[in-house]
């Protein structure tokens, strides 16, 4: 097991290195001059050239990449071309907002998907099971931003129970922070919960056809206790794969949801940096998002080993 984790760690590090090269190369070949964009169209050529030298844009691309990655490894993402402020502290603050949103959204999805998917599988021949499956199918077709707009209209505008947007740090006011997090997390979690419900249903249905579960029921265990004691762990193995993919989807979906609810997360920062053509900031944000997806895949691989004894023995 230790060897497998070491091997997957090496794959993770190689993936991060490859991702950093791809991100840097892709943004480096984009047309236009970042110094010219940052200074505006009225800047003199002398000022543009001086700015290029200040940010190292006149150096070879290999040297620029090595400087950038050397700083990233020490937590220094450089200085913004537009605001002239360090990017690292901004990334750290915005990342906290996005992680709270994604974590809460995944929690909502799991709370919805695990019980409803299990019920839909156990009662798949009954009207209640068909109803759950139909609702899950409907939820898959709803985009997260549309779900967010509907939730705002109902719970913020008409009922006035929750704020329609904004962000309060949890250290300042935990109650207000929680109230502001509910709607954006629900808009992310409801859609992903509908997707995950279908996969949980399929996984539980497959487990129910296994001999060991039929034997447990033949010994007198009722369907739900038998499934809880002997089936859910095996059903979790394929669900973990989908869960990892959904975490990556939540990271991407958070970009739109943050704009809908005016949250100061990585998504909002990315949109603003793209609009200002602040390529160094864009590089940092994209790299953080890509590394986040790679870390999710790494955790999924480790969970495989923990959930499936056959992988530990191999």
Automatic annotation (TrEMBL):
It is found in: Cell membrane. The chain crosses the membrane at residues 12-30, 99-122, 134-157, 177-200, 235-262, 282-307. It comes from the Bacteria. One of its GO terms (molecular function) is dipeptide transmembrane transporter activity. One of its GO terms (cellular component) is plasma membrane. The keyword Transmembrane helix applies. It is a multi-pass membrane protein. Its main location: membrane. The keyword Cell membrane applies. Keywords: Cell membrane, Membrane, Transmembrane, Transmembrane helix, Transport. Belongs to the binding-protein-dependent transport system permease family. This is ABC transporter permease.
């Amino acid at each position: 097991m230790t060897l497998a984790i070491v091997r997957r760690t090496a794959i993770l590090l190689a993936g991060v290195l490859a991702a950093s090269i791809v991100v840097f190369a892709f943004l480096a070949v984009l047309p236009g001059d970042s110094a010219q964009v940052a200074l505006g169209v009225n800047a003199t050529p002398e000022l543009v050239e001086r700015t290029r030298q200040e940010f190292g844009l006149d150096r070879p691309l290999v040297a620029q990449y090595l400087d950038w990655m050397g700083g990233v490894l020490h937590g220094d993402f450089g200085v913004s071309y537009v605001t002239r402020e360090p990017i690292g502290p901004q990334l750290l603050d915005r990342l906290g907002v996005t992680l709270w949103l994604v974590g809460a959204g995944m929690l909502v999805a799991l709370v919805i998907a695990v019980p409803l998917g299990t019920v839909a599988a156990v009662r798949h021949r009954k009207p209640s099971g068909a109803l759950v499956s139909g609702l899950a199918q409907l939820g898959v077709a709803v985009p997260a931003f549309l779900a967010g707009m509907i939730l705002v209209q109902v719970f913020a505008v008409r009922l006035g129970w929750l704020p329609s947007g904004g962000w309060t740090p949890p250290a300042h006011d935990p109650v207000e922070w929680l109230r502001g997090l509910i709607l954006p997390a629900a808009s992310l979690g409801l859609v992903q919960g509908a997707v995950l419900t279908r996969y949980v249903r399929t996984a539980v249905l497959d487990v129910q056809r296994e001999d060991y579960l039929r034997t447990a029921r033949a010994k007198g265990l009722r369907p739900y206790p038998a499934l809880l004691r002997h089936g859910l762990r095996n059903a979790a193995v394929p669900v973990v794969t989908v869960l990892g993919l959904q975490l990556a989807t939540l990271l991407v979906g958070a970009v739109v949801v943050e704009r809908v609810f005016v949250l100061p997360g990585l998504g909002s920062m990315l949109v603003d940096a793209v609009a200002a053509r602040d390529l160094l900031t864009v590089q940092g944000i994209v790299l953080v998002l890509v590394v986040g997806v790679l870390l999710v895949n790494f955790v999924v691989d480790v969970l495989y080993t923990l959930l499936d004894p056959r992988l530990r023995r191999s």
